[in-house]
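Aim 2 progress. For PLDc N-terminal domain-containing protein, the working sequence is reproduced below.
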Amino acid sequence: MRLLLTVLVIALTIYSLLDCARTPDENMPARMPKFLWIIIIVVITVVGPIAWIITSRVKAAEERGGYVEPTVWSSREGTRLRRPERPTPVAPDDDPEFLRNLDRDIRKRRKQEDAGNDGDGDNGDNGNNAD
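Predicted structure tokens for this construct:
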């Protein structure tokens, strides 16, 4: 168990160091220089890497309007955050084709009801003859 925790702490520290080293200087969180972040990550064993991960993701989320994206690694540009292309959902009442089909279906039902009522002999007034 102790070995597992040691490996986990080392892996977390290495990940944080690599992520920090690959982050461009202008994207450093908390307005701290990169060398200071590296010292914090290495010296403060568990808290340093976790602090880096949290602050870097929060800064990225603020830049993206509150939306954290998965990290995409690139050897030339460092860590980049990218928003996947997603179609914007359209409400049914905003979709012209949906409204056209709905109107067509309503007219079709009315014609069927009118045709069914004409065959019954009551002309669709349900016995309420006010004449």
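The helical segments are 2-22, 34-43, 47-63, 96-120. This observation will guide construct design in the next reporting period.
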